[in-house]
Design goal:
about 350 residues, 6-stranded mixed beta sheet
Length: about 350
């Protein structure tokens, strides 16, 4: 499961434009610069790629490999400084697939560019590589001492658009182990889909009746890392809906009771659940939510939904929202019950 401190995210529009430039028809490598802004979670920093700075005539030399001219670098630095953003160098490995390693030349170029980038932006320099199959890999170059810049590999690079595409660095975000308890699940969509899904860090916002069902379904499917956020406590009138709670749990925090239930029923090994007794609009819980890759909105109060809407669009973390609306007639009897679910993400409708 991923415990890394760094990731990169971009919209599908930005990713498509970058791939269109970087993956050339002649099969040679190419490069470009881009700008990034910071999404700062509690334990993870994410570089949100904002816009590309494409090369102009004479800005780079393509010779099988590719190199950039100082004037192009200076133009990109000036754009980043003027915009208050960080700087990214993107380049391609057209013959590669999945997560890409770095050659000696790749390392020398990025490490050598990091001091100037930090001096101009006061942000780490970020490197991104796109493979021939469209998969991304990324790293930060952190200033760890005067004139010393250390490479910090990302665990994931996320592309958020009509769908969510994630590339994992296997050394940090370890692939899941085969598990006999998940045979039926894996048979439904295959091992590759299972590896991609269950390594996502999922946050369940709200530990009521819907949140409890969603969380249990996730951990039985094999998700390895689940965060629970809710400020509420188990009360007597909750017991007709909380499938994970008993009379002995009255007065306890919902997320703590649910966390124990999930540990007992999870099929992944190892499995981690983190209960946070707070509302998502409180600082600590908000920052914790930014450490997730996907959020489930199981809250019914407006302030929580406003914050989740912000996270979906400003921080590129998809929010899956759903619930049941029950209507009664004037006699107090059931008239109708409607279910709705959708995903709030860039390019789609918001929670409102």
């Amino acid at each position: 499961m991923s415990r890394a401190a760094y990731s990169v995210a971009m919209t599908g529009t930005v990713a498509d434009a970058a791939r269109s430039h970087l993956l050339r028809e002649d099969g040679q490598e190419d490069l470009c610069f881009a700008l990034w802004r910071q999404s700062k979670g509690r334990t993870r920093t994410t570089a949100l790629i904002q816009r590309l700075i494409l090369p102009e005539q004479g800005d780079r030399t393509i010779h099988g490999n590719v190199s950039f001219e100082p004037a192009y670098f200076e133009r990109a630095l000036a754009a980043a400084a003027a915009d208050g953003a960080g700087l990214v160098l993107m380049h391609s490995h057209p013959l590669g697939s999945r997560w890409q390693g770095m050659s000696h030349d790749d390392v020398a170029t990025e490490r050598g560019s990091a001091p100037a980038a930090f001096g101009a932006t006061r942000q780490p320099f970020v490197g991104l590589t796109v493979a021939g199959d469209g998969a991304w890999s990324g790293r930060f170059w952190e200033r760890t001492a005067p004139r010393i810049y250390s490479r910090k590999d990302c665990a994931t690079v996320r592309v958020v658009g009509d769908s969510l595409s994630v590339t994992y660095m296997d050394r940090i975000a370890l692939p899941p182990l085969a598990n006999g308890e998940q045979v039926r699940t894996v048979s439904a969509w295959g091992e590759d889909a299972q590896r991609n899904l269950v390594r996502l860090r999922v946050g369940v916002m709200g530990a009521g009746s819907v949140g409890g069902l969603v969380a249990e379904a996730l951990v039985r499917t094999g998700f390895e890392d689940v965060m629970l956020i809710d400020f509420d406590f188990v009360e007597k009138h909750n017991l007709d809906r909380l499938v994970y709670a008993t009379r002995n749990d009255i007065g306890a925090a919902k997320v703590e009771v649910l966390a124990k239930h999930l540990v007992a029923n999870a099929t992944a090994d190892p499995f981690r659940v983190e209960p946070i007794v707070a509302a998502v609009y409180e600082e600590d819980a908000f920052r914790a939510a930014l450490d997730c890759d996907v959020l489930f909105a199981c809250v019914d109060r407006p302030w929580g939904r406003y914050i989740l809407n912000l996270i979906a669009y400003a921080h590129l973390i998809p929010v899956i929202d759903g619930g049941i609306s029950v209507r009664t007639n004037r006699l107090g009897r059931l008239a109708a019950a409607d279910w709705r679910a959708h995903t709030a993400a860039v390019g789609g409708p918001c929670l409102q």
